[in-house]
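Collaborator request log, item 7. Partner lab (contact: R.S.) asked for a structural prediction of Methylosome subunit pICln to inform their binding assays.
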Amino acid sequence: MVVMSSYREPSGEIRHQESNTRAFVNERELGSGTLYIAESILSWKSSTSEDGFSLEYPHISLHAVSKDFSNFPHECLYLMLDADVDNTEADDDDEEEDNLTIVRFVPADKGILQQLFEALKDCQLLHPDPNDSISEEDEFDGDDGADAISDITIQMNSINNGNGNGHSDDAMDAEPGQFDDAE
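Returned to partner:
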């Protein structure tokens, strides 16, 4: 399984190209270069050498705009890959969390982060994960999940109104914006 490969020139339409973008793989900074978000692959190429890498979209498990300075000192485009690229032959005894790689892109212009996120989202949609497909048996029956949403709403109302289990609304308080979408 190839998750991260040497730099490959993107083919097809490039949805976004951003120079002066620093790349980090796990805790290691690779330097500054150009980020290419293309329909075929996501690539980054160093501006000082021929070094770089390319990522295939199905291996990107999660992507987000991160502004959490407690875990990383810069606003960034955050990607979680479904494999450990530093140790692709990990022992079977390792926990699943050990088989992840975090890639962060820090553009010089932080105002561009949302555009990077949108371009990545659009390109990733072109490469659905075959393991995420819905089988014919799992298809919805046409109610668009209204019953499931109703059940969730009822459960949440029960939690918020106190259901005799000793939990109060104070225990459910969240900081404003803590769970906002990247948009």
